[in-house]
Design brief:
The complex is a heterodimer of chains A (159) and B (206).
Chain A lengths: L2 E3 L5 E5 L3 E7 L3 E7 L4 E7 L16 H14 L7 E7 L15 H15 L4 E6 L5 E6 L5 E5 L3 E4 L1
Helix pairs in contact in A: 1-2
Chain B lengths: L9 H26 L3 E3 L3 E6 L3 H4 L6 E11 L3 E8 H12 L10 H26 L3 E3 L3 E6 H13 L4 E11 L2 E11 L1 H10 L6
Antiparallel strand pairs in B: 1-7, 2-7, 3-4, 3-5, 3-6, 4-8, 7-8
Classes of the chains: A alpha+beta (159), B alpha+beta (206).
Chain lengths: 159, 206
């Protein structure tokens, strides 16, 4: 089974039977999108909600620039946008004892920015496992669109 | 424009290594006093890595670690992390508290021990660095979590990520006798603070 690894602030696409994997999501959000007809899948490891004003060197880092780029790459591989569905994981708050400054609340803000961007692109969210205080590692299957989530404290679940 | 970090030359990197060396030397001494055992450290490594590659430096983003985080504020700002494998965490607890651990369960008391270790390491590292650069800086109250190394490090990277795609890590490993206390002590200065550090030392970044 071929595994395509997606690093932090990175994104990639895969086709049946490949699996997209990203490791150690904390406050970052894994955005998994698939067109189940063509089995073209994409995964972005989003780190921050919104790109600043300056020209963005790495669009894969921000929710509002990463998701459109991912969708475009998937379309170039034959996916149809109005058939795409999304699943989300991540957006945790890793340190519960820290003050709730804006930067520390980054997890929920990332999730919110991802949802807004998906709504703008008319891509429905089918399932999500977000928030909490645990790091997550996720595998996204291009075969059936299942998203397998591993955490240290809560074991494995599939959404 | 390329990232200024990617243009650092060998001399400039050696300056960062030396600052890390002094800071970590003080931190190791402080830890020795706390543990009443000789703690040595290796000359720090200075890594300049892209965000996508950072998990290779920390030995795998999925590695389970005891992570202590301190946010550094002042004229030089950044993030500090102490990361220990759970084996090393138990080893330190055994020395400090005199009780051996069989499982990976840590109590609130255990966690506060690591917050205090983070405090002592961070405080001594920063005071050495502050003397060296003549810049004022202080650390936040430490926060602690047991989780995947990548997820914990991400908290510090998002401060960098807003402005840069490259992180500068000054990484130190500690030793106790022949035991490698399998640990990393990272300082990640914020992008604008890298320039402040060099300026304070009279090094022209060009």
């Amino acid at each position: 089974m071929n595994i395509v690894k997606v690093g932090m602030a990175d994104l990639d696409t895969a086709t049946d039977p490949e699996i997209l994997r990203t490791v150690g999501l904390g406050s970052c959000v894994g955005v998994a999108i698939i067109d189940l007809n063509t089995k073209v899948a994409g995964l972005a490891h989003v780190m921050l909600p919104i790109a600043g004003k300056e020209a963005v060197e790495n669009p894969a880092k921000f929710a509002d620039t990463a998701i459109p780029l991912l969708v475009e790459k998937m379309r170039n591989n034959g996916a149809i946008q109005n058939r795409m569905i999304a699943k989300l994981a991540g957006g945790a708050q890793m340190f519960t004892t820290l003050n709730q400054s804006d930067l520390i609340r980054i997890g929920p803000r990332n999730v919110e920015a991802v949802k807004q961007t998906l709504a703008r692109l008319n891509i429905p969210i089918r399932a999500e496992d977000t928030g909490g205080n645990s790091g997550r590692t996720i595998d996204f299957s291009s075969v059936d669109g299942s998203l397998t989530i591993r955490t240290v404290s809560q074991g494995v679940k599939v959404i | 424009m390329t990232d200024p970090l990617l243009r650092l030359n060998e001399f400039q990197l050696s300056v960062l290594r030396e600052i890390g060396n002094i800071g970590a030397g003080h931190a190791a001494t402080a830890l020795s006093v706390l543990m009443q055992k000789e703690i040595d450290m290796q000359v720090p490594n200075v890594h300049i890595v892209s965000l996508q590659e950072i998990d290779e430096v920390i030995g795998g983003a999925e590695q389970l670690v005891m992570g202590v985080f301190l946010r550094v504020e002042g004229e030089i700002s950044g993030s500090m992390f102490l990361m220990l494998t759970l084996e090393s965490a138990k080893f330190l607890l055994q020395i400090l508290m005199g009780e051996s651990r069989q499982d990976d369960q840590f109590s609130e008391m255990d966690l506060s021990v690591f917050m205090e270790i983070g405090n002592i390491l961070g405080g001594s590292y920063l005071s050495a660095m502050s003397d060296f650069t003549n810049k004022q800086m202080h650390a936040s109250v430490p926060a602690v979590a047991i989780d995947m190394a990548g997820a914990i490090l991400g908290v510090g990277l998002m401060h960098i990520g807003q402005y840069s795609d490259t992180a500068l890590l000054v990484d130190t490993e500690f030793w106790q006798g022949n035991n490698n206390v399998d640990s990393h002590f990272f300082f990640l200065p914020d992008p604008d603070s890298v320039e402040t550090i060099f300026k304070s030392l009279g090094v022209d970044l060009g």
